[in-house]
């Protein structure tokens, strides 16, 4: 490909940053697809403002997309970029702090005008005043070279030509890292098929970027990253929100019941609504309702009718849905609530990630109102989490929370796609006939006569003759379901509802611990999207010779049956969370184990380095108090 | 009172089309079959008893399979209604019944779905869901029991209470302006809007019949007396000596008129674009307002709804509007059916495999 020198790398972290309107998310997505096609393992982190178009060239308007790819398995989107593509001074200023000395900066010099520099408080041009001398800076006139490359496109305005500069940047980076661009070309053909001149301009800009890298003397080296050794299989790249939508659809298909979504748009969950609204061909019904409450209400109504009702939202929406979720607990009907968590409280940080709805999911309702909680650990794992949530909801006739978050929702990773026929079986049995006899021995249907094993009540749907019955949010008499204000009955029903949720633990398997040495004294226990950063940190600590165990919870309610035993097995347990210690609170309360809570709420995933530091610090504490352990200090 | 509502001939089953019916030769259902074994727990003298009896008596007329009828309610005295009917039922939470019923009706075209609600449930806490059900025109029949008071919470003023209502929470009288439920429903472009009264079983039953036959959201406001907290709220129009002078019976295709023979007043248009009642003998050349339930625009129906005043000088009763508009649930189901049909039928495992794989895959050997 090149007469220039080619260097082999094992991993690279690239961050594309620009104005919200610069197309950075698209550029990142395309580079990700090219990288996936090449067989690298990867992980991505889009990061964008809540405003659709903040004032141009300002710090609040900066949008970025980070991609970590490697010749080995990748667990996180990377702590710090090796390469920053800065489309304007704001993008440089907003991201420079994350950039280690020696990293590469590709800056679009055309945008470094006096006016734009002034907008973000630069008195002098950092590209010229020597302040960036610790970094490797490539000043490239991205905009004007793109416009020049498109000179022959008479029909296009200058503005249209300038708009293609992200494709030029993509071309340049594709050259630098030997990415194939045919996928992007066919993507552009599809996107701009009806606008031939725009299509031609984008293709030309892409090629110009490739050629620029090849010919300009500024870029002397290009890089190769060999494909990662991944388990055999067919792979695709997938975001968490897409995996969730496909997972819910697949679960309903496996269960043989319709999927009905009631939802109200909210960041960062809306993409699940968008995606499912396009799945009508798979029998999926979606309703964009008048508010969050109506969304969950419609879902619960559909569940009463024999569908799997699903509602998708984020934290503020869960707050509004709480009463209806409580009704679902009382009616004992299946319902899936997807909470794509974001920074809170209140409106908080709509586009940033956080894990701070755990206690809301656990306790955010009136009365004793237990709801099972399932949390995916990575974008692709959202598929499995969706299947598990539907399994629990339909088997135990209960609302179930899926706690995803902004990082999982928009982040992506390669996924070894499963075959539907090989997925766990999912069966739903509706009640079809009377299940009891009355005092006179006449067959009757009792809607709250429970399955002895699961404690689930029968699911008898309208249209089933002879099983007509009424359910409601008023306390019901055990077995008959008639209204009951009897004290003993309420005590019994409360314990039955709690007991039913506890029994789910019998179907979920033990908490598995990863401890290769078998000699670790310190356990790192996480849940949800912190899996990648925790695993990367654990790996890094082990690489330095220390021993540490890792476990990760998929089920937050109920916890796996052996959780207490696992916690007590270790001298110290570190619980990193993107909240103020919500899981730690639950573990301490339930198991009386004084876990070490390590928290941050910066709207971003943990970095590997900060987690590794936290682990090492705990290992040192442990060693300091344990005379037999010398390994850490040695 | 007259029960002839003067409706144009519509398909007798439009509202319940798609709902399984009893065989032609099957014995007619009885009121008893629709009566559950639960003890009715409303206060003695409550208007809800009469409405319950009318509904239990009317449901057999529909000829539908009982298991395909569902009553969904919210919270309030009226919302206990589903417990007393031997159909499927859900007593849900305050104000949300229309949302829950929307999900049920949309996902199950084979059900006849009814909502029972009250003035507080439908117009205060659940106002949003009510207007959106009407806007979407979901195939539901909503029975709004209006007693102009909060009963279950023991006597606070409601969003339909008259200004100045002295109640538990308003010792000096309420200051907020009430909703007129019919005006509200027409403002939300409800396709079927009617008003009737608990004590007039024949009128109530006929309105229910028309509401059930309407495909789309039917809103039926039912004046209902609360003997404990707002007794006598509708006495002026229940009193046999006064009702004829006050109740305006809306009959499709006929002039809007009120009063007994000999002292009849007819509604005419005024020069300023309004309406007023004038004695029949003084109509002269003036344009008489003729009721048209099927008028495409709800404007005249809305004007009729404004004849109603807290003094109950003139209270229109009957069907204000009854127009056809595609229903939300039919269209949602149609889109799914069309998409499934175009794709060649319900999805198979291999269709799902294709969805899971997406368009951009690579293989690791």
Automatic annotation (TrEMBL), chain A:
A single GO molecular function term of this UniProt record: magnesium ion binding
Residue ranges constituting the Pyruvate/ketoisovalerate oxidoreductase catalytic domain according to the UniProt record: 21-210
UniProt keyword Oxidoreductase present: yes
Domain Pyruvate flavodoxin/ferredoxin oxidoreductase pyrimidine binding positions: 257-476
Keyword annotations: Oxidoreductase
InterPro entries noted in UniProt: 2-oxoacid/accept_OxRdtase_asu (IPR022367), PFOR_II (IPR033412), Pyruvate:ferred/Flavod_OxRd (IPR050722), Pyrv/ketoisovalerate_OxRed_cat (IPR019752), Pyrv_Fd/Flavodoxin_OxRdtase_N (IPR002880), Pyrv_flavodox_OxRed_cen (IPR002869), THDP-binding (IPR029061), Transketo_C/PFOR_II (IPR009014)
Oxidoreductase is among the record's keywords: yes
Domain Pyruvate:ferredoxin oxidoreductase core, chain residue ranges per copy: 520-584
GO terms, biological process: response to oxidative stress
PANTHER family for this protein: 2-OXOGLUTARATE OXIDOREDUCTASE SUBUNIT KORA, PYRUVATE-FLAVODOXIN OXIDOREDUCTASE-RELATED
UniProt-recorded name of the protein: 2-oxoacid:acceptor oxidoreductase subunit alpha
Species whose genome carries this gene: Knoellia koreensis
From TrEMBL, chain B:
Domain Thiamine pyrophosphate enzyme TPP-binding stretches: 75-222
Any Pfam family: TPP_enzyme_C
Signal peptide: none
Chain spans, region Disordered: 1-34
GO MF annotation, one: oxidoreductase activity, acting on the aldehyde or oxo group of donors, iron-sulfur protein as acceptor
Composition bias, Basic and acidic residues: 22-34
InterPro entries documented for this protein: 2-oxoacid:Fd_oxidoreductase, THDP-binding, TPP_enzyme_TPP-bd
Keywords, comma-separated and alphabetical: Oxidoreductase
GO biological process: cellular respiration
Protein name per UniProt: 2-oxoacid:ferredoxin oxidoreductase subunit beta
UniProt-listed PANTHER family: 2-OXOGLUTARATE OXIDOREDUCTASE SUBUNIT KORB, 2-OXOGLUTARATE OXIDOREDUCTASE SUBUNIT KORB-RELATED
Source taxon at top rank: Bacteria
